[in-house]
Design a protein that fits this description.
Helix content: 25-40%
Oligomer: single chain
Strand order of the largest sheet: 1-9-8
Strand content: 15-25%
Number of strands: 9
CATH architecture of the largest domain: 3-layer Sandwich
Length: 179
């Protein structure tokens, strides 16, 4: 019986040492690999640009501002009742890129869209007072002659699609978060 106990003890100790060495090795490997895995995450400045909060309170009806989001200009326009009515009066089925005005806005008076022409990536004019707004009162890309309406939909010219609407949410009546 004492032989049986002596044989049992070294085997149990050996199993324990094997398990402990394996655990320490696994932790060591994880610690060694972590910096490489962490380097694949986006940088802090990139993460900071993934969302932008904008205060809409100072923007009067008829005015527009441009903010940067992910390195792109985003047009935010406080539309007038006439601009809203003009955008809603268009039959979406007649458009090259059919999209109703209601599908492009969350609140009718606020239009938020990426200000990059869908033809060759130019920035359309129409944000500043005195800029040409094209034949449909919205935006005009002078590079190749694309005309957008008051909902940012392509109406004339070579651009194949409407100006893109980014993901955004109203945080309050006067604050939005883009991204």
């Amino acid at each position: 019986m004492s032989d049986h106990v002596m044989n049992e003890t070294p085997k149990t100790r050996r199993d324990f040492l094997f398990a402990a060495a394996t655990a320490v090795g696994a932790v060591g490997a994880a610690v060694a690999v972590w910096p490489f895995v962490d380097s694949l995450n986006p940088a802090a400045d990139t993460r900071a640009l993934s969302t932008v909060e904008v205060d809409l309170a100072p923007i009067a009806a008829g005015q527009a501002i441009t903010v940067k989001w992910r390195g792109k200009p985003v047009f935010i326009r406080h539309r007038t009742p006439q601009e809203i009515e003009s955008a809603r009066a268009v039959n979406a089925a007649d458009l090259r890129d059919p999209q109703a005005d209601d599908a492009r806005v969350q609140k009718a008076e606020w239009l938020v869209m990426v200000g990059v022409c869908t033809h060759l990536g130019c920035v359309p004019l129409g944000q500043k007072a005195g800029d040409p707004v094209g034949d449909f009162g919205g935006w005009f890309c002078p590079c190749h002659g694309s005309h957008y309406d008051t909902s940012g939909r392509i109406r004339k010219g070579p651009a194949p699609a409407n100006l893109a609407v980014p993901d955004y949410a109203f945080l309050s009546d006067t604050q939005i978060r883009i991204g």
